[in-house]
Amino acid sequence: MVSYNQSVNPAPAIELLVIGGGPAGFFAALTLAEARPRSSIVILEKASTVLGKVRISGGGRCNVTHACFDPAILTRFYPRGGRELRGVFARFQPADTIRWFESHGVLLKTEEDGRVFPVSNSSETIISCLTGEAARQGIEVHTHTRVKSLERTPEGTFVATCHDGTLWHTRRVILATGGEGGFHLAAGLGHTIQPPVPSLFTFKIHDPRFEGLQGISIPAVRLWLPTANIHSEGALLITHWGLSGPAVLRLSAWGARVLHQHNYQLALTIHWLPGLSEDGVMAHLKNQRSHHGRKRVTAWCPFEAIAQRLWQKLVLSAEIPETTTWSTLTRQQIVRLAQELTAGRYEIAGKAPFKDEFVTCGGVTLDEVDFRTLESRLVPGLFLAGEVLDIDGLTGGFNLQNAWSTGWVAGRAIAGKT
Ligand SMILES: Cc1cc2nc3c(=O)[nH]c(=O)nc-3n(C[C@H](O)[C@H](O)[C@H](O)COP(=O)(O)OP(=O)(O)OC[C@H]3O[C@@H](n4cnc5c(N)ncnc54)[C@H](O)[C@@H]3O)c2cc1C
């Protein structure tokens, strides 16, 4: 294979230079190669291996996508970028991702909650498929190659300069550098960057109500950040550092920016019984007086969803003494307990990692990109795909789907242009 990189003489421009060997970059390159075989395509990756995040994704199992096949519903899983992705998903959505991998020899399975994984339960299956296909298509891949700067020439081509001084001349560029590392390249060409901040994390909360309760999970709660009026619902897990589980991850994604602005120190309220209003909870508590009057309140939890040990803590937090029986419970105590159950207040003290998935909120401003092609509206010939854009999804396969879909649309657009 001819290598076009030269540090002295200008080289013939290759058709496509992909900056970033992640899923978005690979998928864009493969889409162009499949649509127009024998295109000259080069992927530059700064790390020692490509597809590093895919390797660790989904706890090493790679949650490839989510079995949500209606583009309009799918967009609701993206705190940022949902509106822009509507048309992209109309062209390439999870059903297409599944079809693409299966037609390239990767068997996939859908778990009960809709997450899609390789049957092998190993991200290596996805990596071998993408790298094997790239090799088969003659795509040149260079690792240990960090692009330092990117310029557009007066003739409308691009020159990328690598950390070792190597220059690459290309007619089109896909910037697919993910949530870290490549924003300066887009900014250098005039793009605006929404400041990157973390999304998908868990909460550190030091509260006596959670002491000794690690491992307890509650199937459904409603969380609320009053400062920003952001809600989320779902299962909750009490951990040794605070709270985790789908409800927390969702809130961390929708509230990523406001939480960052407040240095991850904000008040949170928990409704432990989201199916009931405060009045409904009060009525249920009052009912217990006649049916279980002789039992101690701490010893009898009338709500199936709340674990007994958690219930005890909530009762004590409502200032109801340990020895109080249901028959002696006062109206004020019932009001306090109902408030504790529906709007208990907790102080978030910081963020803690979620090991299965992590994503960056922020990136290239979306109205500077034409989502019919993923081409920059400011710099013709520059395409952007994946997490480098100000797009991020909830946990569950939505972030990789963004990479596949935007990569595919960019690859097809370039195939149509050349
Ligand atoms: C621990 C973890 C688990 C995850 N699990 C899942 C999951 O199961 N399902 C899911 O949907 N999402 C998951 N995600 C999110 C998902 O991995 C990312 O959203 C996705 O990888 C983004 O793809 P990308 O190609 O845009 O960027 P990336 O995967 O970040 O790839 C960008 C590449 O560009 C390279 N690069 C950056 N700057 C330069 C430069 N200047 N020159 C050359 N190369 C450069 C980087 O080294 C990187 O390899 C997970 C993320 C993490 C961190």
TrEMBL record:
Domain RsdA/BaiN/AoA(So)-like Rossmann fold-like: 16-412
RsdA/BaiN/AoA(So)-like insert domain location: 197-359
Needed co-factor(s): FAD
Spans through the membrane: none
Flavoprotein in keyword set: yes
Pfam families associated with the record: HI0933_like, HI0933_like_1st
Assigned keywords, A-Z: FAD, Flavoprotein
Source organism, top-level taxon: Bacteria
Protein's UniProt name: NAD(P)/FAD-dependent oxidoreductase
Source organism of the structure: Anaerolinea thermolimosa
